[in-house]
């Protein structure tokens, strides 16, 4: 039987971590195609392939270079490769920009919250998701899935789930509790919980349907880690999801953006399908409501076919671009995302030329750079 094929889009930190984990973790035979601009895909596949050979793993990596315009190339790449599944790890906005090149743009994100980048995170996801659906491939989006996947659902773009965020929280809690897996553990949480909790509250966890106490203390060590290095854990958790989807095996975990829902939820993967496994006493409506509350704290809420920036995000955007129409600084129809993305790219180009100021302009809440693919 032919090994399943997974197309990984992107070659940055997260894509590299996922491929490194796929190369060494136990799992079924797999073919991985890495699509990225320039020679970066070649280098990533060479390193991952070498790791697979050392580990004796039956997984093969092949590069697919796209040229500089990844967005324009994606539909044809996905059509030609016709993979079983697609994992998107590329977007227009890196979460690590403040570290390398702080500017008035990163300061704007610090004031308004990472949710302001939603259109920049969603643009490639819409293109890749539509192309994956046309090819009959399942689609997993790693780019700010807590907010992007609800946007995809509003645009009727099929998406299974994301990786990272709540999966990282759950992995840290699993480790702290000394659990061999996550069958007994259920976590409901959001991208915003990668940072210490604010007024919107902490992520929620259950062990054997009993609420976990001390979640903030349990996550303190993870939150103190250097953020880029955490992609090693996110990559491992993501690879487990890809292996389970590709092989049809069973996996209990917690994932963001499940079937286009906001935020993150405990799920079971089995036979290539995902089902919620919420704790007893918590309804899906209550879990979604909690995640929408946390979405507002992250700067953006998607619902009823519209994208609504939180007041702090809208105020920061209006201050940075006074000529921008009031409607767009507060909310816009999901279908207008490409247009808003283009305007944000223009604004970013201008603000990148302006120094950030003494504080450097933190990108995420509490002065911690926000997480996402790189």
Describe the structure.
The chain is α/β, with parallel strands linked by helices and 374 residues long. It has a domain at 166-293. It contains 14 helices and 14 strands. Strands 3-2-1-4-5 form a 5-stranded parallel beta sheet, sandwiched between helices. Helix 5 packs antiparallel against helix 12. The longest helix has 17 residues, at 118-134. It is globular, with a radius of gyration of 19 Å.
Output the keywords:
374 residues, alpha/beta, three-stranded antiparallel beta sheet, 44% helix, globular, disordered C terminus, Potassium transporter TrkA, signal
Present the secondary structure layout.
Layout: E1 5-9, H1 13-24, E2 30-36, H2 40-55, E3 59-65, H3 70-81, E4 85-88, H4 97-100, H5 104-112, H6 118-134, E5 138-141, H7 145-154, H8 166-177, E6 185-188, E7 204-207, E8 210-211, H9 215-224, H10 231-247, E9 251-256, E10 264-270, E11 273-276, H11 284-298, E12 300-303, E13 306-309, H12 311-320, H13 326-330, E14 331-333, H14 337-351
Parallel strand pairs: 1-2, 1-4, 2-3, 4-5
Antiparallel strand pairs: 6-7, 7-8, 9-10, 10-11, 12-13, 13-14
Helix pairs in contact: 1-2, 1-10, 3-6, 5-12, 6-7, 6-14, 8-9
């Amino acid at each position: 039987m032919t090994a399943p094929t997974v197309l990984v889009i992107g070659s940055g930190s997260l894509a590299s971590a996922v491929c490194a984990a796929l190369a060494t973790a136990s799992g079924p035979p797999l073919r991985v195609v890495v699509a990225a601009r320039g020679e970066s895909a070649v280098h990533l596949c060479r390193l991952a392939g070498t790791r697979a050979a050392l580990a004796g793993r039956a997984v093969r990596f092949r590069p697919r270079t796209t040229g500089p315009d990844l967005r324009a190339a994606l539909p044809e790449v996905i059509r030609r490769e016709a993979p079983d599944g697609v994992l998107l790890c590329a977007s227009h906005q890196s979460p690590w920009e403040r570290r390398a090149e702080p500017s008035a743009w990163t300061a704007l994100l610090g004031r308004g919250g990472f949710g302001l980048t939603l259109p920049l995170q969603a643009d490639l996801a819409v293109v890749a998701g539509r192309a994956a659906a046309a090819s009959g491939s399942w689609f997993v989006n790693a780019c700010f899935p807590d907010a992007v996947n609800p946007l995809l659902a509003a645009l009727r773009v099929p998406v299974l789930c994301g990786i990272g965020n709540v999966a990282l929280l759950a992995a840290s809690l699993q480790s702290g509790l000394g659990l061999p897996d996550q069958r007994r553990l259920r976590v409901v949480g959001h991208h915003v919980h990668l940072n210490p909790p604010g007024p919107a509250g902490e992520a929620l966890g259950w062990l054997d349907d009993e609420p976990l106490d001390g979640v903030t203390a349990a996550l303190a060590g993870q939150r103190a880690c250097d953020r880029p290095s955490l992609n090693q854990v996110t990559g491992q958790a993501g690879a487990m999801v890809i292996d389970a989807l590709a092989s049809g095996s069973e996996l209990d975990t917690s994932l963001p953006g499940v079937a286009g829902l906001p935020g993150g939820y405990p799920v079971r993967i089995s036979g290539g399908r995902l089902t919620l496994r919420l704790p007893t006493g918590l309804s899906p409506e209550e879990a979604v409501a909690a995640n929408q509350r946390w979405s507002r704290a992250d700067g953006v809420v998607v619902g009823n076919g519209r994208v609504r920036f939180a007041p702090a995000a809208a105020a920061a955007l209006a201050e940075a671009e006074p000529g921008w129409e009031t409607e767009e600084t507060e909310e816009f129809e999901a279908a207008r995302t490409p247009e808003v993305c283009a305007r944000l790219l223009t604004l970013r180009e201008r603000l990148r030329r302006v120094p950030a100021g003494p504080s450097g302009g933190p990108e995420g809440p509490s002065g911690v750079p926000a997480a996402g693919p790189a």
